[in-house]
Amino acid sequence: MRHETHDATLGMITAGIVGATGYTGVELMRLLAGHARVEVKLATSRELAGTAVAKHFPNLRGRFDLDFSAPDRAALGGCDVVFFATPHAVAMKSAARVLAGGARVIDLSADFRIRDIGCWEQWYGTAHECPELVSEAVYGLPETNRERIREARLVAVPGCYPTAIQLALLPLLENRLVDETRLIADAKSGVSGAGRKAAAEYLLCEASESISAYAVTGHRHHPEIVQGLETAAGGPVNLTFVPHLTPMIRGILATCYAPARDPGACGADLLRSAFERRYAGEPFVQVLPRGELPATREVRGSNVCEIAVHYNESTSTAIVLAAEDNLVKGAAGQAVQCMNIAFGWNESEGLEGIGLLP
Amino acid sequence: MRHETHDATLGMITAGIVGATGYTGVELMRLLAGHARVEVKLATSRELAGTAVAKHFPNLRGRFDLDFSAPDRAALGGCDVVFFATPHAVAMKSAARVLAGGARVIDLSADFRIRDIGCWEQWYGTAHECPELVSEAVYGLPETNRERIREARLVAVPGCYPTAIQLALLPLLENRLVDETRLIADAKSGVSGAGRKAAAEYLLCEASESISAYAVTGHRHHPEIVQGLETAAGGPVNLTFVPHLTPMIRGILATCYAPARDPGACGADLLRSAFERRYAGEPFVQVLPRGELPATREVRGSNVCEIAVHYNESTSTAIVLAAEDNLVKGAAGQAVQCMNIAFGWNESEGLEGIGLLP
Amino acid sequence: MRHETHDATLGMITAGIVGATGYTGVELMRLLAGHARVEVKLATSRELAGTAVAKHFPNLRGRFDLDFSAPDRAALGGCDVVFFATPHAVAMKSAARVLAGGARVIDLSADFRIRDIGCWEQWYGTAHECPELVSEAVYGLPETNRERIREARLVAVPGCYPTAIQLALLPLLENRLVDETRLIADAKSGVSGAGRKAAAEYLLCEASESISAYAVTGHRHHPEIVQGLETAAGGPVNLTFVPHLTPMIRGILATCYAPARDPGACGADLLRSAFERRYAGEPFVQVLPRGELPATREVRGSNVCEIAVHYNESTSTAIVLAAEDNLVKGAAGQAVQCMNIAFGWNESEGLEGIGLLP
Amino acid sequence: MRHETHDATLGMITAGIVGATGYTGVELMRLLAGHARVEVKLATSRELAGTAVAKHFPNLRGRFDLDFSAPDRAALGGCDVVFFATPHAVAMKSAARVLAGGARVIDLSADFRIRDIGCWEQWYGTAHECPELVSEAVYGLPETNRERIREARLVAVPGCYPTAIQLALLPLLENRLVDETRLIADAKSGVSGAGRKAAAEYLLCEASESISAYAVTGHRHHPEIVQGLETAAGGPVNLTFVPHLTPMIRGILATCYAPARDPGACGADLLRSAFERRYAGEPFVQVLPRGELPATREVRGSNVCEIAVHYNESTSTAIVLAAEDNLVKGAAGQAVQCMNIAFGWNESEGLEGIGLLP
Prior knowledge:
The structure is a homotetramer.
Chain A: H1 2-5, E1 13-18, H2 23-33, E2 38-44, H3 53-56, H4 73-77, E3 81-84, H5 91-100, E4 104-107, H6 117-124, H7 131-136, E5 138-139, H8 142-151, E6 154-156, H9 160-174, E7 183-189, H10 204-207, E8 212-213, H11 221-233, E9 239-245, E10 252-259, H12 268-279, E11 285-287, E12 305-312, E13 317-324, H13 328-342
Parallel strand pairs in A: 1-2, 1-3, 3-4, 4-6, 5-6, 7-9, 11-12
Antiparallel strand pairs in A: 7-10, 8-9, 10-13, 12-13
Helix pairs in contact in A: 2-13, 8-13, 9-11
């Protein structure tokens, strides 16, 4: 096994990025450029093969002397780690070959996140080509799965909505503090969550100076979120999830509402202390002090997820707010965090950048 | 009574605006400039007295040959209608004198909106100086109060959150479709809702590229909203209300959640038809066709409130989304609509401007 | 001649819009909806034929009960006026037929703006299919061409950059105040100037929070601007024109620099008075008072062009700033202004809407 | 001398920041948090003394366990380096005492930038209280002054406009390529350039969705820029400088125009090669390849200044565009760069962060 012969803890490892031309890809390259133990050897793009990475992403100018290359499974397998920053239904076609080559795989797409293959196929509208790896894949939410990530060959990193909403609701469910059949997640996402695709609805003239909900009748991330919440609750969970397109580039704010299971015993302090206990020691979850509220600007560019907990007495409702940068803790940063865990490094390596404020 | 001797239906009436230097004031002047029956005679501002209105608000250049004047209750009383576009606790000091002078008063502030004086005093932190007019004042939401507005001397126009949230929830409560003890309103407001005051938190560098909740533990508009909802429900209502500051100038989107009273009988079509019946014939409420969702950009600058209705089967939750321009249907436009009703004119007079898109 | 038999001054006329699915199209429909003398009978779109206009542009909901229809030259010819809000090289294929049907044509595209056919063909990369109409077409800048527009069958309305820059420089050239071989126009345009096309560079995530120049080596509007300036100067003009993509939806600000011809005699007051004289009586050009500067927000949604004039003594340079809404005075508003002139109506009809501020 | 006894090249040094509550202050703390050789020991603020730095700037939460303290010149003098991130006319009152205590001083304000005291006093409207240090102070533009910065006790770091415009024009002047009496700098700045002060004009509702020029008749940075340009030119320089407020948080784009001295001999390639030679080896100036243009989003959060060079043949005008992050290369990043030089470290230490894109 290559993992054994290559002593990754002692030197630099090599990384490949598949589908490096989107926002998750450039963010991954930004973070890896500052990571002392990783050298990005390959960045693949069918469309841009031969173009300098820094021409496509000028913020990387002078930092990567690398051209995009056509995807090549053999070359990828020769890396120590391969990140898939691809649309769904791409990683499932290549992951097995890349793993067989000896690389670990960290998939930022949805291909290996949902354990129920039928459910995945329904939401993603295609047959899953690699169901056998779904059961091996480890869900890459370090706050719930750190030990398994440590051993994983294949990590399925959750995206932006699932990360924010699960972090906001897990302590409530694990401690049986709320009625798990009536959860609500009202989530507000910056436009970069839609990726870099040239669709009219994401033009500045369409998406700025406006807020709107979308996918009210159902969103692909819903089953993934429910899967995580049910694991925490140890049973069925019902969730109303309404995503909103917010006129900003980066950031997700999830405002979650959950009815207290026992209104007489519930309260803001009780709730906050459950969160403080749950996330004590977590390097990237900040439970805010009483009276403070998260704002996406406070975590722009950083891997932090800010959480605040409130309780509305008159409706016996827990209100949990979670803010993250959708491209960092909601994508590339979390992938790096998983890599650090999987390779046995300091979990914060390469993730110490402070958010850009203002 | 001046109202009788002045035949306002036959010619131009004169209007005064108190506190015309904020965003509600300039929007009122924009709308009145296009109103065939109203001449703005006075625009008062203690601070800017003597300055040309068009110097302060250059979009009005060439349209108003008027200087701001110091407030003068006698002069105001000589107008046919006086709008208060002031912060709270100003109109209550002058309204009685202005009414006595013969003018009708349309107050865009909160001074006469809440019938429970003690509650008002608690939220606004000062003694109410004119409680006797509170009971006479008519709440200026045309969709619930049209007949009373027709006769009113003093109209208390609801603001942006109360308008959107009441319009979103009234049909559910009037038809007893939902559990009125578990209502949630997750509202997203553009920054103009905070007015033109120079506070650091509303600077472009603080408020753009970010979304955050505020006033989670209680907001001044909460009791006003609940008062309206309880009237509709005919009994007590409990509401969780979480306002959010959204990085855009104009617009409010209220995403409201309410548990179905009878999940077995409820459904999206049933809900939508209740809204369609309720708002049939309303000139400024648009219940959207199935499959469409409101966006604040669609009503920017117009007096329209767009509403969409959905139902989440798995949680038995009604989801109602309402979008309006907070400065128009949520303030100045609604004030003009109330004036039109009170003077017996076509309710849409001066309000036919189409939203600016993009 | 249909123009003679149809007494357009007495009643409503009918209008058709070709290519009504872009930003210029929706803006035209917004303005025409408020125009007392025009009924929009046709809005054509090959792609959206059969779709309700209000479904595509929800701000028009309730105002137009009209579906997009496939382009039909005969039907268009039956209108009193036809607006082309199409990309370049479309109007030239249909204008002759539409004119032959009896309609006047107001073209918002570039097809008939440049008198030098070879120059047009070079910049637009295709052969001109209707050169014979180029000489008949009247350039639709009312401030220079009002009398000819009055008689025109075919008006070629200048776009956003040409309007702002010509209005900013004409008085300098007409009065021979500056060295016409060294003109500079540094222009800043909102993103709507690029239209509604789904190109990656105009995504919110690409175009917001950034400013950049483009087309520094040459822009299609350059020859059109120079053509107008040379007419004013009565001889050759050299212009450096650098357009910039500015992170906002609407608005153009042109900052123009021109060396004084006679530094000893020049000065701010002399310059300003040349502008005041030139634009006295113009309904939509505002020469700002000394000390005030234009801002695009002051004209958002209105047909006004604001101009300020300064003089830098140390470099003997005139500085002229012009701000307009690129979709109004820079497109649809100017087209309506031309229509009003051509039909002998009040030039401001339907253009009295005040800019939306904030 | 403390500088001699403290071997700063071997370990951590201690830093103090005076006036750390503005945007320059927080950016400095963000950069210093990632600097391996600096420990921020003091952050002073008269107003916020006793408040945790991370409460005021939540992006620093978990990274600085420090409260703001009242300014204390003795304590500051005990630091190895003291940064003044204060408004003008503050550093001049304290710098001498802090220097006497043994610290080096890096002043980000304008107090020591202008050598002509009378000129400074005229523009800043107050008497200079420390003229004797003005002549000692070294102007902190590493690209022109690296050797002197190495020896400096007191560095006067240029701000955003002076940095971008000087970097854009220096190679033209040093090589006598242009007529130095007719320079134009049309500069576009993000709103953070105005600092964090709560003034109405910088509210989101005033400053977003608009662009406008300001200070057309004269700007404080003008004499500082001219001073630098004259040094490069070896003689008098005349400059028209028009700053514009641009609707974005960060970034400056300076579009500079200069008439070729010898039009016959000039050209784009000649100009570009002058820039390439001039900035070869500069770690933070990128002369872009032919055909590429700077955009402020490409340098957001990074210390890079991007420069592109063009030439307009018809007007014989050199066009140079320079983009930087006004808070980094235009303020805090440049201060850190100067510190690195002054302490003999790698000039890029702590400045390797890649810009955030998107």
